[in-house]
Predict the 3D structure of the following.
Amino acid sequence: MISDQTPSFTAFEGQRRIASGPLADVALAVKHAETRTMAPIAIYSDATGRPVDLDLRGSDNEITARLQRTSPVEATGPRGRGRPKLGVVAREVTLLPRHWEWLNAQPGGASVALRRLVDEARRAHGERDRNRAARDAAYHFMSAMAGNLANFEEAARALFADDRRRLAGLIAPWPDDIRDHIIKLVERI
């Protein structure tokens, strides 16, 4: 799911949250924390709950410049033909012949019809998709940071059952920063 908001990230030193916010800010906080600790440090994407690996070599300015050069478009490969000002990205779609026939018969052709269908689906299912993405992010983070803590499996069941009261009760004894971050991720549901 693509968001209009600036992506947010959170870093943990062991079980303690050390930074949260834009990637450049979190990366610099991690770089400075690495000079004073031997504890493991991990950065997590708040959108996916998955860990993020960064190259933290060099000065603060070099790290910031390197992170600014990396954009979602660059991560998908070089831009080819098309209309770059509109952000068009060409990818392969595999459909049956009857699907291609229907798409090509639509006003504007296959590309216009596909864009329209995707936009309609996003409007119709956007809330459900956002809730699923938030729940999945909470689960990925919870698995990585709390997978060995008491009541993890029951907490995961409560998360997927959308039983927030039970989830909160089960994770209450967990380390404060881990618990609070899970709740932050769940609140997006």
